[in-house]
Write a structure and sequence with these properties.
787 residues; alpha+beta; Isoleucyl-tRNA Synthetase, Domain 1; Ubiquitin-like (UB roll); four-stranded parallel β-sheet; four-stranded antiparallel β-sheet; flat
């Protein structure tokens, strides 16, 4: 609307799982209330809705129910639309995005090709998390405690050719979170997931074994401890494991590697887990002191992090210390603790100290030794300064049907060939055979697989992997700005008008998956010239979790259906109860008994509004009674406006309850005009409207308000009227509380002390004593010092 400032309020869109449960209502109803409030504050608000409709659950449903994923998904979408309307959400359904529709996923393919052109997409063989139950690869973030987050099956490793996005190219920029209005815990989780470390790559010589690779390269942030290395540990997947393993150790190493392949990276690196390892029978030479140290393999070392090899310094790393104790490996102190007497350590020493047992660097503070040792390593070409990250490139390949087809063709003559833009979208075939074979069902569809090369037109094969569904949610916020676009992913002018998103709400579970990928995607689109901003979401707010008892309400384990509750109490009662449970970011516990209180209160509001104000005309107006009710209205408006702006829905509703109680008292007491009563009713309904939209709109029509209440402005408040008329002064005698007195808010020091001295309770503690001193804290305290 012309003349209004745009405001983009977005809530993370749902997966169409079949029915909205109360957990969904807890996410979406308060968000809708916040959007309605923002409109009433005079903004053009974009608050869209859609469905994150691709993904493994639909494919599993196809297998379990003998139904096509498209049919199952779109049936659920239709049902959830109905439930959102029942909830009273103010979505503009003309902007709806359903990610499984070709008009959406063609642009996934378009962006993939743009990323490929820019070197941001590539194909490579790499170990992948493999779920044997779901028969698909998983991103690291989708593995929880060693198991698939979806089906809870144990995850193992497979070497596969897969497609990746180079998210690591943006690792440093993704660490720039300081100025973002996001929760500190989310920022910390993203920083930890990216895991930037600065240190040194150093080469340990294994040239005696006659291999093509003559050194094991390790990364360390503690190069000052290099003289304390007493062993090297390789990841079980490290390419040097097999050639370095000696015949006597081969059986043990093979068994250990096999066991490690069945464990997740998260399990292997857990700080709560004891380190294990087996020797290869080989040794590597430390270039700083020429010492031979044994080479082992250990599953706590990851091939995907750093160099896939670590140096063991047990005197200065607690886990290395325990590992060395377990396997009877030497523990050599090289950074001395203060006042060290040369005796064995009881535990690893981790702080700075003085170099010992470190050759020419003995006596240097360890902080200085880091630079000196690094300089020596560099000058002798034994290694180099290095930065490493925990973050890995984003694996987007999935061996399943229900996802965006990757627009690639493999030609015997031309190799890997992108599908031309004018041939997009590459459509999913209408039918597929869903078999748990470990391959995409697309592999069995000859009409899909067999095609011609876009370059030479010879027979060729299509890529049969589909894209990770996080691709869909990485840019959907941009599509909402112009969802009808058919010749481009979005209208740049519409994006400029609305984006970036001003407020984004959703669950904390997306901290290192969706949110990280969306940030990367937005930065890549910026660099490709599609948008002119780097961060997609200006402000992030995470709501809590709904529980019954100690159990989380969820589709899979503990659903609670809202439809029967709506039928019994009405949607507004359910909305308000969810918002009244407690702070939105803390979550809440559903108690059936608690909803009755909200139901009774809304009925009292209904009764108040239906009272005939003309009855008040027969009673004389009392100015003091009018002041009380008028002030209550302005105080409540100030409070509710602030609470709604900061998502404190529970205290906003509490304020409305107090206001409705004050209205009842004023009516019963009398002395108020029909005009003030009517203004108070109007004010109450306007404040209630964002949270109870159906009831407020119906009552608004009853009092003759212009259609609709949701197109009206939120009521204003006057600071002078809202100011307290009285203040409560604490009176102390010799620092002890003796009375409290109510005085005018503009009371001065002399009047306050006189009132304190006039108090009978205070007089009892002054008799027989001498008043030596009077202390006054304006508007708060009088302290009388008596001897």
């Amino acid at each position: 609307m012309p003349g209004k400032e745009n405001f983009y309020h977005l809530t993370m869109f749902p997966y169409p799982s079949g029915d909205l449960h109360i957990g969904h209502w807890f996410a979406f109803a308060p968000a809708d209330a916040a959007a309605r409030f923002r409109r009433m504050m005079g903004y053009n608000v974009l608050h869209p809705q859609g469905f994150d409709a691709f993904g493994l659950p639909a494919e599993n449903a196809a297998i379990e129910r003998n139904i096509h994923p498209r049919e199952w998904t779109l049936r659920n979408v239709e049902n959830m639309r109905r439930q959102f309307r029942m909830m009273g959400c103010s979505y503009d359904w003309s902007r709806e995005v359903v990610t499984c529709m070709p008009e959406y996923y063609r642009w996934n393919q378009f962006f993939f090709l743009k990323f490929l052109e820019a070197g941001l997409a590539y194909r490579s063989e790499a170990p992948a998390n493999w779920c044997p139950s779901c028969q698909t690869t998983l991103a690291n973030e989708q593995v929880k405690d060693g198991n698939c987050e979806r089906c809870d099956a144990a995850v193992n490793k497979r070497q596969m050719m897969q497609w990746f996005y180079r998210i690591t190219r943006y690792a440093d920029e993704l660490l720039e979170l300081g100025s973002m209005d996001w929760p500190d815990n989310i920022k910390l989780m993203q920083r930890n997931w990216i895991g930037r470390s600065t240190g040194v790559d150093i080469n340990f010589d294994v040239s005696d074994y006659g291999l093509e690779e003559t050194a094991i390269t390790t990364f360390t942030t503690r190069i000052d401890t290099i003289y304390g290395v007493t062993f090297i540990v390789l990841a079980p997947e490290h390419p040097l494991v097999e050639p370095l393993t000696q015949p006597a150790q081969r059986a043990d190493v093979t068994a250990y590697v096999e066991q490690a392949s069945r464990e997740s990276e998260i399990d292997r690196t857990s700080v709560e887990r004891e380190k294990t390892g087996v020797p290869t029978g080989s040794y590597a030479v430390n270039p700083l002191n020429g010492e031979q140290v044994p080479v082992l393999i250990g599953d706590y070392v990851l091939a995907t992090y750093g160099t896939g090899a670590v140096m063991g310094v047990p005197a200065h790393d607690q886990r290395d210390f325990l590992f060395a104790k377990k396997y009877n490996l030497p523990i050599r102190v090289v950074v001395a603790p203060p006042n060290w007497d040369g005796k064995a350590l009881e535990e690893a020493y981790l702080e700075p100290g003085i170099q010992v047992n470190s050759g020419e660097f003995n006596g240097l503070p360890s902080t200085e030794a880091k630079k000196s040792i690094t300089d020596k390593i560099r000058s002798n070409e034994w290694g180099k300064k290095s930065v490493t990250y925990r973050l890995r490139d984003w694996l987007i390949s999935r061996q399943r049907y229900w996802g965006t087809p990757i627009p690639i063709v493999y030609c015997d003559h031309c190799g890997t060939v992108p599908v031309p833009n004018d041939e997009l979208p590459v459509l999913l075939p209408a039918q597929a055979q869903f078999k748990p074979t470990g391959q995409s069902p697309l592999k069995d569809d000859k009409d899909f697989v067999n095609t011609s090369c876009p370059n030479c037109h010879a027979p060729a094969k299509r890529e049969t992997d589909t894209m990770d569904t996080f691709m869909d949610s990485s840019w959907y916020h941009l599509r909402y700005t112009s969802p009808a676009e058919s010749y481009r992913p979005f209208d740049p002018d519409a994006v400029k008008a609305w984006a970036p998103v001003h407020r984004y709400t959703g669950g904390v579970e997306h901290a290192v998956m969706h949110l990280l990928y969306a940030r990367f995607f937005n930065k890549a689109l910026r660099d490709l010239g599609f948008v002119d901003f780097g961060e997609p979401y200006t402000q992030l707010f995470n709501h809590g979790i709904m529980r019954t008892g100690q159990r989380k309400i969820s589709k899979r384990s503990n659903p609670l259906a809202p439809d029967p509750l709506v039928k019994k109490y009405g949607a507004d009662t359910v909305r308000c109860y969810l918002m009244f449970l407690g702070p939105w970011d803390h979550g809440g516990e559903w108690r059936q008994s608690g909803i009755n209180g909200i139901f009774r209160w809304l009925n009292r509001v209904w009764e108040l509004v239906w009272r005939d104000s003309m009855i008040l005309s027969s009673v004389p107006v009392d100015p003091s009674s009018e002041r009380v009710l008028e002030r209550a209205g302005h105080v409540t408006t100030r409070r509710v406006e602030g609470d709604m702006d900061s998502f404190k829905f529970n205290t906003a509703i509490a304020g409305l309850m107090e206001y409705s109680n004050e209205m009842t008292r004023s009516w019963d007491k009398g002395g108020i005009s029909s005009r003030l009563w009517e203004n108070s009713v109007e004010r109450l309904l306007l404040m209630l409207a964002p949270m109870a939209p159906h009831m407020a709109d119906e009552l608004w029509q009853h009092i003759g308000g212009e259609f609709s209440i949701h197109q009206q402005k939120f009521p204003s408040w006057d600071s002078a009227i809202a100011a307290a008329e009285t203040v409560t002064i604490v009176v102390q005698v010799n620092g002890r509380l003796r009375d409290t007195i109510d005085l005018p808010s503009d009371v001065g020091e002399t009047a306050a002390i006189e009132a304190a001295l006039a108090s009978e309770k205070v007089q009892r503690h002054l008799s027989g004593g001498s008043l030596r001193r009077r202390v006054y804290v304006p508007g708060k305290l009088v302290n009388l010092v008596v001897t």
